[in-house]
Specification:
The protein is mainly alpha-helical. The protein has one domain. Helices cover 68% and strands 0% of the residues. It has eight helices and no strands. α4 packs across α6 and α5 packs across α8. The protein is globular and about 55 Å long.
Amino acid sequence: MSAVAKIVLFAPAILAALTVHEYAHGLVAWRLGDPTAKRLGRLTLNPLAHLDPIGTLMLFIFYIGWAKPVPVNPAYFHNPRRYMVWVALAGPGANIILALILGILLQFLLSAGLIVPFGISYTMLGFTIFINLMLAFFNLIPIPPLDGSRVVGGLLPPQYLRGWEAFERVGWVVLIGIILLGRVTGLHLFGSTIFPLSNAFYRIFTGGAPLFF
C-alpha cells in the first residue's frame, strides 16, 4: 500500500484514537475538580487541539505513538495521588471501550452483509479498532511520560516516590531509546508484546473476524 493510500485510509482512525484518548483524560480530570483542560480548550473532540506531530508520525510508522498531553493540575484534586490514577487510566480505558463498540459494530455489519472482509470499509473499521487497542496498551507501559507511569506513581508507597520522580525526569529518553533500538536492530520490545495483545483483544471484540491486513 502506498504512503498516500495509507494516509487516506488510516488518518481518520488515528485522529479518532488520539482525540478520544486525550478527551477522556481531560473529562475525568474536570469531573474530579480540575478545570485546567476545559479552560485551555482541551476538553474537546476537535483532533487539532490534541495532535503532537512526532507522536502522530510514530503512529503511522510504528503503530505506537502519542498525542499532546492534556494539562492536569493535581492541586485541584481532593486526593491528588489517587485521582491522578483515574485520570491516567481514562485515556487507555476510553480507547479500549471505543474498540469494543466498534468491534460489535463490525460483527453486525459483517453478519448483515453490509461489508465484506478486506474491503475498504472493513479495512478502515478494522484499523480503527486495532489502533485504539495499540494506543491503549502502549500508553499503559509504566515508562514516563506514558499513562502507565502515572498509575505506578499514584500507587507506589511514599518511601519510593523520590526514586520514581527521578526516573520520571529521564523516562522519555528511555522510551525513545527503546523505540529507536527496535528500529535499528529489529528487536521491537514494545511491538513484540503490544501487537500480540492487541491482536488477541481484536479477535475477542470482533468475534474472531480476520485482521484487516
